[in-house]
């Protein structure tokens, strides 16, 4: 009876009809990524979608998503729509959601030729003035988000397909120096943020990848700091670069002294997707996750939203889509989801098998905690204590109704993800 009461309370608190017997809290895309030594598995999101409570629940499930990226609301047209007038409400909503959920925030993006207001692209500024405008934008936005963004996409998509510089107001007015100037400005404002160059079609060897490597060298030659390169990875089913091609390409960047991340992954196909396309798509997802897993300096993977419902693809590529691990109705696509899980490797101790995970719903516990907090850091010598059995790394160590151990084995700390789940990591 007491159990039934506790169950009722839990379901009421979560607002979910999900059974507590599903194993979602101990397994998921992010949990597997972290178990594989990565910093996160994450998703992009956008402000309009957050009013969909089922969507928001799925996005807030830190077992699947340990990181989020604002898809639009930190871009120039959102932040500084007119000169000197800054508007942070949309970006703040997503930043505050990340804090509430205990998720890392990749901030996107400071200098991009697209979603750039007319006052910049057609402003007719001379070299010195545009440099000043760009520096002012970077400084204002990064100051506002200082300490809140663990990554910043400082410059986005500066290259043509042949690896030459793309024509843009920045390149045409300032020349290639706009890139190192942007990075130097960013580093001066928030020295702790990891500063990224981000682009697409740079995921395997070729002219554009070489161009991106030259951008890394250019920034360093100017004496500026670049920490990472983001591979957007907007792939097509059946044309996704092989795992080995992605690994060797990542390593070419790593050898230049930067980390790498997969920043906007989706793998599109003609819709409706055929069963053979889905089978190939599962392999393509596995190749991409496997590549990041294989490269120690690949720090994590972000999908460009998690559900087809809010994917950018159908609006841009007519007749294509079905690119993400959740469908238009927010149902998990088990073939794709399990392909990602399994590509990361085995579940952490105490975690679910991929088939158990596949039966989990998207609805997570509602979190009331503001930030992830470490509650236990002692390294016990014993295998049990007054706090119960010592919990192995990756095991659960706390949460509402948790009756197991709360002390983590040596080398791990009990870290709170939400009121219902803490894990030894
Ligand atoms: O905000 C307006 C709204 O007021 C208007 O009613 C509506 C009508 O179409 O448009 C809204 O703006 C849209 C915006 O997304 C916000 O939803 C734009 O039309 C639409 O073009 C814009 O698309 C975004 C696209 O970047 C623009 O290039 C996508 O959501 C966003 O996912 C996409 O993300 C990019 C990355 O930043 C960089 N890499 C490629 C990736 C995919 O294109």
TrEMBL record:
Its EC number is 3.2.1.8. GO terms for biological process: xylan catabolic process. Gene3D superfamilies: Glycosidases. The keyword ATP-binding does not apply. GO terms for molecular function: cellulose binding; endo-1,4-beta-xylanase activity. Pathway: Glycan degradation; xylan degradation. The active site is at 264 (nucleophile). It catalyses: Endohydrolysis of (1->4)-beta-D-xylosidic linkages in xylans. GO terms for cellular component: extracellular region. The keyword ATP-binding does not apply. Keywords: Carbohydrate metabolism, Glycosidase, Hydrolase, Polysaccharide degradation, Secreted, Signal, Xylan degradation. Residues 389-425 form the CBM1 domain. InterPro entries: CBD, CBD_sf, GH, GH10, GH10_AS, GH10_dom. Residues 25-343 form the GH10 domain. Residues 1-18 form the signal peptide. It is found in: Secreted. Belongs to the glycosyl hydrolase 10 (cellulase F) family. PANTHER family: ENDO-1,4-BETA-XYLANASE, GLYCOSYL HYDROLASE. This is Beta-xylanase.
């Amino acid at each position: 009876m007491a159990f039934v009461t506790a169950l009722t309370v839990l379901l009421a608190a979560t607002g979910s009809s999900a059974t507590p017997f599903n194993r979602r809290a101990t397994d998921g895309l992010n949990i597997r990524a972290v178990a594989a030594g990565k910093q996160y598995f994450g998703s992009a999101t956008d402000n309009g979608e957050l009013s969909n409570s089922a969507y928001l629940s799925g996005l807030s499930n830190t077992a699947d998503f340990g990181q989020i990226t604002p898809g639009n609301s930190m871009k120039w047209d959102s932040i500084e729509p007119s000169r000197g007038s800054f508007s942070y409400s949309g970006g703040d909503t997503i930043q505050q959601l990340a804090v509430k959920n205990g998720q890392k925030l990749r901030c996107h993006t400071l200098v991009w030729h697209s979603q750039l207001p007319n006052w910049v692209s057609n402003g007719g500024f001379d070299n010195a003035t545009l440099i000043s405008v760009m520096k002012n934008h970077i400084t204002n936005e990064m100051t506002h988000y200082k300490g809140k963004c663990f990554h910043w996409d400082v410059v986005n998509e500066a290259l043509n397909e042949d690896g030459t510089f793309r024509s843009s107001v920045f390149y045409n007015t300032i020349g290639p120096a706009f890139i190192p100037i942007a990075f130097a400005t960013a580093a001066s404002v928030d020295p702790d943020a990891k500063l990224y160059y981000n682009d697409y079609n740079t995921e395997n060897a070729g002219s554009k990848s070489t161009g991106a490597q030259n951008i890394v060298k250019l920034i360093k030659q100017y004496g500026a700091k670049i920490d990472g390169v983001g591979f957007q990875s907007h792939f097509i089913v059946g044309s996704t670069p092989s795992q080995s091609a992605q690994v060797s390409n990542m390593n070419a960047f790593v050898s230049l002294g930067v980390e790498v991340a997969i920043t906007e992954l989706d793998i599109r196909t003609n819709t409706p997707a055929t069963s053979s396309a889905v089978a190939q798509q599962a392999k393509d997802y596995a190749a991409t996750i496997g590549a990041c897993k294989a490269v120690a300096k690949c720090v994590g993977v972000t999908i460009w939203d998690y559900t087809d419902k809010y994917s950018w693809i159908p609006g841009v590529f007519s007749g294509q889509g079905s690119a993400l691990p959740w469908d238009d109705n927010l149902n998990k696509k088990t073939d794709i989801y399990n392909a990602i899980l399994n590509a990361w490797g085995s579940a952490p101790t105490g975690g679910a098998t991929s088939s158990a995970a596949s039966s989990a719903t998207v609805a997570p516990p509602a979190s009331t905690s503001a930030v992830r907090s470490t509650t236990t850091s002692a390294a016990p010598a014993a295998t049990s204590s007054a706090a119960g059995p010592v919990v192995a790394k990756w095991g659960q160590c706390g949460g509402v109704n948790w009756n197991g151990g709360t002390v983590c084995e040596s080398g791990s700390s009990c870290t709170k993800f939400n009121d219902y789940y803490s894990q030894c990591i």
